[in-house]
């Protein structure tokens, strides 16, 4: 259920942002527009990564933190693929016991290993390496989703 909810939220967010934003604030994360829908992309990540469903919630929190740090950050068709992948990957590495290599994450996301390594570092710096999420914050986001 959380996968379907997150997929719908991602599609809605990308659609709404597309009207007034391109990649100006996050050029590092821009790339070719994916050939699959945001919903199919969420499903792909969850199917092949083995990430726990709570990683979707934590990933959403990380994306919200990016937005809070830079209000000009929008998820668009040009960047959602990389940003969402990095958010879930980072959450999975922080939370899950199951290890997935960056090589596998790159294959799941349809980008190169070199690119995912660079994006991971940029993502962590943009979050100031603040990955811990309080239980109350997690519960609030989970309820909202």
Description:
With 145 residues, the protein is mainly α. It has a single domain (2-19, 35-144), classed as Cyclin-like (Cyclin A, domain 1, Orthogonal Bundle), CATH 1.10.472.10. 64% of the residues lie in helices and 0% in strands. The chain contains 7 helices and no strands. It has helices at 2-18, 38-49, 54-69, 80-95, 102-109, 113-126, 135-144. The radius of gyration is 14 Å and the shape is globular. The mean pLDDT is 85. This is Cyclin. It comes from Guillardia theta (strain CCMP2712). It holds the Pfam family Cyclin. One of its GO terms (molecular function) is protein kinase binding. Keywords: Cyclin.
In CATH, the homologous superfamily goes by the name: Cyclin-like
The number of helices is 7
N-to-C series of helices and strands: HHHHHHH
DSSP strand tally: 0
Domain tally? 1
Query: Which radius of gyration do the C-alpha atoms yield?
Result: 14 Å
The termini sit apart by 10 Å
Q: In CATH, what is the class?
A: Mainly Alpha
How does the helix and strand content classify structurally? mainly alpha
Tell me what the CATH architecture is: Orthogonal Bundle
What proportion of the residues is helical, as a percent range? Answer: 55-70%
Would you tell me the overall average pLDDT? 85
Characterize the main sheet.
none
Strand share of the residues? Answer: under 5%
Low-confidence stretches: none
Morphology call: globular
GO molecular function: protein kinase binding
Protein name: Cyclin
Keywords: Cyclin
Pfam family, one: Cyclin
């Amino acid at each position: 259920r959380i996968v379907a909810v997150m997929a719908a939220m991602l599609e809605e967010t990308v659609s709404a942002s597309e009207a007034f934003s391109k990649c100006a604030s996050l050029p590092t994360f821009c790339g070719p527009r994916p050939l699959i829908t945001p919903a199919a992309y969420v499903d792909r990540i969850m199917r092949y990564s083995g990430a726990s469903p709570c990683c979707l919630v934590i990933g959403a929190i990380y994306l919200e933190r990016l937005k809070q740090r830079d209000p000009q950050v929008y998820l668009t068709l040009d960047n959602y693929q990389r940003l969402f992948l990095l958010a879930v990957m980072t959450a999975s590495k922080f939370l899950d016991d199951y290890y997935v290599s960056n090589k596998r994450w790159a294959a799941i996301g349809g980008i190169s290993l070199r690119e995912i390594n660079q994006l991971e570092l940029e993502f962590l710096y943009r979050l100031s390496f603040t990955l811990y999420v309080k239980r109350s914050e997690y519960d609030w986001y989970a309820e909202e989703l």
